[in-house]
Every structure is written in C-alpha cells, then in structure tokens.
Design a protein that fits this description.
430 residues; mainly alpha; 67% helix; 0% strand; globular
Length: 430
C-alpha cells in the first residue's frame, strides 16, 4: 500500500535530478473525512451524529484517524530511523511527543476557558446555565481540586474523556522507537510485540485492564482510549507504509467478504434496530468484550479492516477516482487539505464543537440551525487547515515577486550600478 512513488528524472544535460515524491491523495482524503466526523461526534446536541459511521458498525472515525496517523508516522519518522540511525529517529519521535504533549495541555486549558466563559455569560441571564457547560464535560472537579488536578493535568494522571485522544496518541508515538528497534532484528519480533501488548491491554482484572493508566486521582477510572490496545491499528497502518505488510489483492471475493462483514455488523450496532429487537440487543451486549472501544476489541479491528479495504478499492489505485469529480474536485482538495493538517484541525475541532454546541443549546436544534452550525464548523476547520498550511510554507522566506527600482536610485547609482543592482534582484527572484 505504497503512499509515494519516486519517478526517475533527468536534467537537460543528462544529470539525474533528485527524486520527486508524489503524495498519495488517499491518506489525506480519509484523514480529512475523519476530522469532519470527529467534529460532529464531539458537538453537543448535534443530531447529525446519529448518521456517522459509528452508528452502523463497530469501528468509527477514531480508527480512521489512528490508522492514518500510523501511515503518516511511517512516512515522517520511519525514514529518519532508516537514513539517520536509531538514535536520531528516537530524537525525532521525542520532539513530536513533546509537541503533542503541549498541544494536549493547550487544548485542555482553551476548552476549560471557553466553557467557563459560557457559564459566566449564562449566569447573567439567570440560573439556567450556571455550571452547565463545565459540568457537561465533567470539569467541575478542576475547580474544587485545582492543586491536585493541576499536577494530574501535567503528569497525565488526570485525563477527562473529552481530552483522551492526544494522550493515547503520544504514548503510541513513544512506542515507535521500540518497534523500529525490533524491526532491525526481525519483523517477527515486531508482530509478537504489537500483538502481545494488545492482548495484555484486553485482559480484564476486576473490570480494569492491567496495562493502562489512571484517568483521575479520586477513582479507579482508567484512560478511556487505552494506548496499548489502540497501538494495534496504528502499527497496522505503520506496517503497510513501511512495506512490512504487502498490500492486499483486489479481487471480487475479498470485496464481497468485506462488504458482507460491514452489512452483518449493522444489526448489532444500529441503535434503532437494537431498540426494537431485544434478542439482538442481548447479543450485542454479549459481544461487548470483543467490540469494546476502550481497549480496542478484536471485532472493531475486523470491522475497520473491512471498511478500509472497501474504501481503498473504491477510490482506485493511488486514489485515481478522487480526481474524477470534475467541478466538484475543489471539495476533494479541501478535504485533503484538512487531512494534511490533522493535528491542528483536530485541536481546533474540539474547541469549535463546544462553541457550536453552545449555539445549539441557546438557539435550539431545528434542522436549519443544525445545518448552519455544522457547515459553519466545517468552514472553520477548512480555514484552519489552509491557514496552518500557509504558515508552515514560511512565505516570509520566499523571495519577493517583484522589486522595481526607483528612478532616483538609478540616477544616483549610475548605469553600471543599476545594472549590477538589477542582476542582484533578478538572482533573488528567480
């Protein structure tokens, strides 16, 4: 499942040029789709959440995000291990973990500030909104236990459910040097390590996994997203991108089997069916150990692989069908841009989701209000993606597009000076 290819190129004088990497549009496209779904899922009172993929199967947008993050990490960090050695790769991962850690801290404080402002504004109009938004995220403890929870926030021993994806992601990232080290010995060790860790995470001792982290100091609750369970889907994407796993063949039999898996799971996941058929509800409850989200149950993995395979086949080789949208291609481009800046967009989405949710709480959730709220949220995420991409391009480092000389400068410098000056500017702008 290669994401890039490097066509050979030769200059006009016969000298080889540096290989050109062509980015596979599928990775960014599906990450972008996941970002929009995650926004909907985190927006309070948004009935669009009744129609996201999670309602019709065992897996959801979280699997898409983690799987694609594994693929992107293989591209971004795997090459460093290969070209610069293990220690330099370790340093690169440590730097990324540091970035994600502070992104998590900043996200928590930004959302806490936002919901606190909402509640303060609400109290001016009456007691209806007093503590409503803070309590909805279970953050009221932060005010009553600030000294302990400030320590817990920075040591990741206090992780409210709304803020649990980034801690999970940074722990998985920290496992990359271990996996790359094992890969230098034998790929079989990588498989044994990843599978063994996942199995330990799925053991249940007194209702808790023996391999997880505490989520709050006053109870035995653990991180909702157990990183040692979720690393399985991350390193699956990582392995495909590193070439450790071959891309699956495209056959009618495999496509039919994948579609069958997706259809069979619907009656065990769709809440409307479960509500009407008690027998299916009992069956779904019995399957909980295999479909649980916290430690990433095995049926979630099977369902996601089926969904990923069908989607991979549907968009064509190297995402060729994504470019066949004609006048709607701009939509694909925007989705891809969102996927390219997934960390910044994800952080922004959790903040924007709370703002849109507050609007729904005040204005109601009629279809028009919800439509405007979601479209406004989507537009904001797209704007964030393009803005972050612009800053990352460092436009201030690019040469000026034009630098006309003033007449006074030409006269004072003389003909030869003007010629030298023109040549200098031309060199800078080429």
């Amino acid at each position: 499942m290669a994401v890039t290819h490097t066509p050979s190129m030769t200059s006009s004088v016969g000298k080889p040029l540096a290989p050109v990497k062509v980015r596979d549009p599928r990775l960014d496209f599906f990450r972008g789709i996941a970002m929009f779904i995650i926004f909907i899922a985190h927006t309070p009172r948004d009935f669009w959440a009744l129609w996201i993929p999670a309602r019709f199967g065992f897996s959801d947008a979280t699997e898409i995000f983690v799987f694609c993050s594994g693929m992107a990490s293989a591209l971004a960090f795997g090459a460093v291990f290969q070209k610069r050695g293990w220690w330099m790769g370790f340093a690169r991962i440590a730097h990324r973990v540091w970035q994600v850690y502070w992104a998590h801290i900043g996200l928590f404080l930004a959302v806490l500030l936002l919901v606190t402002i909402f509640d303060q504004i609400g109290t001016l109009t009456g007691p209806t909104f007093k503590g409503l938004h803070v309590n909805a995220l279970n953050l009221q403890h932060f005010y009553s236990k600030t000294p302990d929870l400030m320590i817990g926030l920075f040591t990741l021993t206090y992780v409210p459910n709304y803020f649990d994806i980034l801690p999970m992601y940074l722990v998985i990232l920290a496992m990359v040097p271990v996996v790359m080290g094992l890969a230098r010995v034998h790929l079989g060790l990588v498989a044994a390590f990843v599978i063994s860790v996942w199995m330990l995470a799925n053991l249940q001792l007194v209702g808790m996994s023996p391999l997880n982290f505490p989520a709050e100091p006053w109870s035995a609750r653990q991180w909702f997203f157990n990183p040692f369970g979720w690393q399985l889907v991350f390193f699956t994407g990582f392995a495909f991108m590193r070439g450790w796993l071959p891309q699956p063949p495209v056959t009618k039999g495999l496509v039919a089997a994948a579609i069958a898996i997706l259809l069979i799971t619907v009656p065990f996941a769709y809440f409307r069916i479960l509500r009407e058929v008690p027998m299916l509800q009992e069956a779904a409850q019995a399957l909980k150990p295999l479909t649980g989200k916290s430690s990433f149950g095995i049926l979630r993995y099977v369902h996601f692989l089926a969904l990923a395979y069908v989607s991979w086949v549907a968009v064509g080789p190297m995402g060729s069908r994504l470019s066949d949208w004609g006048r709607y291609e701009i939509i694909v481009d925007m989705i891809r841009k969102v996927g390219q800046q997934s960390l910044a967009v994800f952080i922004s989405s959790l903040i924007v989701a709370q703002f849109v949710g507050m609007i729904f709480r005040v204005r109601g959730t009629d279809w028009f209000t919800v439509l405007l709220g979601n479209l406004g949220g989507f537009a904001t995420l797209i704007a964030v993606a393009y803005t972050v991409a612009w800053f990352k391009s460092q436009p201030w480092r690019k040469p000026a597009t034009s630098a006309p000389h003033s007449a006074s400068h030409s006269r004072s410098a003389g003909a030869s000076g003007a010629a030298l000056s023109s040549g200098s500017v031309a060199n800078k702008t080429d």
